[in-house]
Amino acid sequence: MQEIRVLIADDHALIREGITKVLSLEPKIVVVGEASDGEEAVAGARELKPHIILMDLNMPRVSGIEATRLVRQELPQVKIIALTVHDDDQRIFEVIKAGVSGYILKDVDPGSLLKTILAVHAGEIVIHPTVTTRLLGEFHRLTEVAQAAEEREAVAELLTHREMEILKHIAKGKSNREIAESLCISEKTVKNHISNIFRKIQVEDRTQAALFAVKTKLVEL
What we know:
Blueprint: E1 4-9, H1 13-23, E2 29-35, H2 38-48, E3 52-56, H3 64-74, E4 79-84, H4 89-98, E5 102-105, H5 110-121, E6 126-127, H6 129-158, H7 161-171, H8 176-183, H9 187-201, H10 206-215
């Protein structure tokens, strides 16, 4: 039976000692080394070739996030589980992008920690439930942004430059007279453009046109 080689990276000696004791409960796992900062974690990964690194994110000299990036670039076979007391959105997204295979909070119970290591070693991705909810929310937000960008590009191809200008003015609540004065054209010309805009984007009134402009992010309110 192949043992799962684990490197523990945390700047608190007591935490490293506590994790080591927990991992000793699982015969399949062996702790091959410890690191007290990100720089030592990277050096330990190079020297010890662990299967998994338990990486604290908030460490001196080199942060856990930066250490994760370095290890994943140089030793992509090494899997990293982020350990943190924080679960703020920015940190979550940074560490996921850095390439971790797991993200768990330090208050996790011993059984869950062991299960996470075994699951990650088997090729699974393990993310703390509260973090998963936030990731899904960010995924949906990015999807909406991408869809809006596609729609905006489609509108740019559909409308003329002048029509785009007028649509933006409509979205800002400008009257035909205000639009005409702003663009130095006649109100009749504005009305003709608005009729073409409504037809092209398939709306029936100014309110719908304004909502369309906001949805596709032609304007920011």
